[in-house]
Amino acid sequence: MTTVTVAANQSKLAPTVTRQLLLDSGYVLLGLPLALASFVVLLAGTALGIGLMVTVIGLPVLAGTLYAARGLADIERLRLPSVLHQPRVRPHYRAAEPGASAWRRIFVPIADAQSWLDLAHGIFKLIVTVSTFVVTVVWWAGAVGGTLYWVYDWALPRSPDETDLAELLGLGSSTLSRVGLYTAVGVFFLITLPIVVRGCALLQASFSRAMLTGVAEMRDRIIVLEEQKRAAASAEATALRRLERDIHDGPQQRLVRLAMDLSRARQQLASDPEAAGRTLDEAVAQTRDTLAELRALSRGIAPPILVDRGLPSALAALAGRGLIPIELRVDPELGTPTGRLDPALENTAYFVVAESLTNVAKHSRATECQVSVQRSGRRLTVSVGDDGQGGAHVAKGHGLAGIADRVRAAGGELMVVSPPGGPTEVRADLPL
Question: pTM here?
Answer without folding.
Answer: 0.55
